[in-house]
Amino acid sequence: MTSKRVDKPIAKICGLGFAELSREYLKSQKALACDAIIAAVADAGLQKSDVDGVVINRSDTNPSDDLPLRLFDDLGFRDLTFGNVLASQAACGVQMIQYAAMAVANGMAENVVCVFADTPILPKRRGGDAYAIDLALTNIPGWERQYGLYGAVGAYGFAMRRYMELFGVGAETFGEVALAARQWARRSPLAFQTKPMSMDDYLNSKLIADPLRMFDCAFPVNGAGAVIVSAPEGGGGERNGAAFIWGMGQGHRGYLAYSDYENETDTPARVAGKKAYRMAGISARDIDHAQIYDAFTVTTLLGLEGYGFCERGEGKDFVADGALAPGGRFPVNTGGGQLSGYYLQGMTQVSEGYLQAANRAGDRQIGNNGWSLVTAQGGRMDYHACLVLSPEKVR
Amino acid sequence: MTEERFFRDEQNIAFWEGVARNELRLKKCSVCGVVLAPGATFCSECWSSELTEMKASGYGKVHSFVVYHRAFSENETPPYGVALIALEEGPRIVSAVTGGVTAHVGDDVEAVWSVAPTEGPTLSFSVVNEAGWKRED
Ligand SMILES: [Zn+2]
């Protein structure tokens, strides 16, 4: 291991902008991305001419041409020194921040805008139908389809069932995660699902791929979010506040469906966390609050375990009694997450993590705001990335 | 959304011919011995491309299991179960458990071949916890 403790932050996030988030199709991914970029640049107190880098996180729900580098045309960018489109699935929401941070830390750019845009909801497609996950384990095209395995709900339902039966976990544990997210959502002006939810509401929500219910699933929206990443000194953010990036990590694996490889309940979030904590010179114990990728309730539990807040299989006790909710022991997904807030893949966690670490989270601001963690993941929990943030520029 | 549920491609004709004989044919690495999925073309462990074919015994365990309560296409009538079966040789495959929705992680299962009206032989698994695997060797 060659990673080292840093004595100053790598970079900062210093501006956030959104396009209109909606449950109907309003405009294209590219148009949404432009809206978010313009809003983020203004939020950071910067001008178009200050932006010299653009990184795009493209969603897999639509064809790649929907969010291309041609975005530079629409926004009239010239002489950018850093630019790319990332498409290694939802972990990219965090990964693009990492690449931007490395760029500004090494002088390749000064102010990089990182944008995610998505339109899972099309005029003829419901949001939930956009997320098909191909679980092609046999490598024989057609085999899996014979059995009616569809969508992310199948793959994540497998993970949920296995987690429940290996560790003796009941539906209420997932309910705790959903309820905490809903309570936080009620404090966020950005959140979509703000109706109060009881454990009975959770348990009575529609089964989709048993044991996975409606309220175990993220809430898909169309929209876009963008943040500005700059060097710790200079750049934007003086006006609205900055979050400093002290640690960054990734953890990836191939999904190997043979022998004793455990894909469902043990993820390489472990690898990502170790790297990031080591870089920041801290441990999981030092983290005060976290934004954990929660496309499904089971991913919150596996994220808490993978990032070292509790041991493997102990998520059940860790989340009990409203521990993740407002007033709880360990605040998680303080904007309602993807479950009750809005699903913009990794950008959901990035945006809320930034707002908290920059002390901009309004009614839901965490007082105990030291170190915080932001995570994202992609695939069938195969690709992980995280950031360690702090409001502090000096240690 | 109508998608072709019973898709067969040219490349894997030999595999589907095996299925027509009620055989699930797996791949085995000649170098490191790991048993891989039917469609493997080289070994993901040691990167050797020397693979041999072997017939699955049909015995395994339930690795995980879901029951769909929503139809994602016109081909399915919910509720229906989909299982991840860990074959005793090592590979995991997507399949179904016969007789409804009562499977659990770790259940012993054995292969059951049936003939669908139009699409030909299909493989599912039945839970044999009480009786155990009935080997015919
Ligand atoms: Zn091998």
Automatic annotation (TrEMBL), chain A:
SUPFAM superfamilies: Thiolase-like (SSF53901). Residues 258-390 form the Thiolase C-terminal domain. GO terms for molecular function: acyltransferase activity. InterPro entries: Thiolase-like, Thiolase_C_2. PANTHER family: ACETYL-COA C-ACETYLTRANSFERASE, NON-SPECIFIC LIPID-TRANSFER PROTEIN-LIKE 2. This is Thiolase. It comes from Hyphococcus luteus.
UniProtKB/TrEMBL annotation, chain B:
It comes from the Bacteria. Gene3D superfamilies: 6.10.30.10. Residues 16-51 form the ChsH2 rubredoxin-like zinc ribbon domain. SUPFAM superfamilies: Nucleic acid-binding proteins (SSF50249). Residues 56-113 form the ChsH2 C-terminal OB-fold domain. It holds the Pfam family zf-ChsH2. Coiled coil: none annotated. InterPro entries: ChsH2_C, ChsH2_Znr, NA-bd_OB-fold, Thioester_dehydratase-like. PANTHER family: BLR3430 PROTEIN (PTHR34075:SF5). This is DUF35 domain-containing protein. It comes from Hyphococcus luteus.
